[in-house]
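Notebook entry, structure prediction.
Reason for the run: the old model in the group folder had no record of what sequence produced it. Starting over properly, with the input documented here first.
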Amino acid sequence: MAKVKTVMPNQQSKLKPALTPESRENQMAALAMDLVEQRLRDGTASSQETTHFLKLVSSRAKLEQERLRLENDLVAAKTKALADAEEIKVLYEEALKAMRRYGGHGDEDEY
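New structure, fully documented this time:
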């Protein structure tokens, strides 16, 4: 049985030229998704394509996505904590210098 190639009308005219590699990648991904969607609707999708989308909607995949999201949040929180710790260190150093000046000892840099 020969496979039927479906061409979506006016697909080319809708797309603007991509300005960055990332936007070009997004365009290609959107085209691929459109093609696979059409093949699923027509009943001509391969078993790999069908299995891929079945895995995407599984509870395991959803849990993995949630885990990844939480890991990203954790990395962001750790990064913020490191930046905050650096700011606190600078504030303590400035406070100690101010106390030394106030106590009449002057700056350590002067000696």
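Summary: The radius of gyration is 29 Å.
The old model has been moved to the deprecated folder.
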